[in-house]
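Today's session is about reading a structure prediction critically. Students often jump straight to the picture, but the first step is always the sequence itself: look for stretches that repeat, for charged clusters, for runs of hydrophobic residues. Only then move on to the predicted structure, which in these notes is written as discrete structure tokens rather than atom positions. Here is the chain we will use throughout the hour.
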Amino acid sequence: MSNVGLTIAGGTVATTVLVLSARTWWKGNREFKTLVPYAGGLITGSSWTLCVGGLLGAIAVQATEMTNKVGEKAVGVATGAHGPSTLAHGAMGTLTYGGACTVLIGTIVGGIALKAAGKTDKKRMLGGVLAGVTLCATAGFSALMQWVPDLYNTGGAWLTNALNGGWSL
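Below is the predicted structure for this chain, in token form.
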């Protein structure tokens, strides 16, 4: 992602989305399947932060800037405090070309799943995307998600190999 940083106020908004999703799951039946839409959105959103110079990367930057503005407004109105403080910036890694292709495939499949999802799952998916694109701008969360570029890069290498005729895992 570019040098856009998440402010503590923006982090408050993104963390609130994360906590509300976890709370809903915790107070429910705690079934793994109810986490899938949110987790899928989180992984998708975090992968977009790796797409520097592309449309998905631009969406990640815009979402982070919007979340910062919403957070700063909410904190100011609720508490009277002002003065955004940017959190330490982080990066998960880089994508190979095959990894980037896999991110695009995943985004398209995710869009199809979003369109087919019910109202509750749409909210979970979009909440996950928001948390992924914003929280991965921080050093702490991006360190937790460093496996994401490896996931996409490995998938891209496998896809390239498969399309070249080598169907082995």
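Discussion point for the tutorial: Residues 8-161 form one domain.
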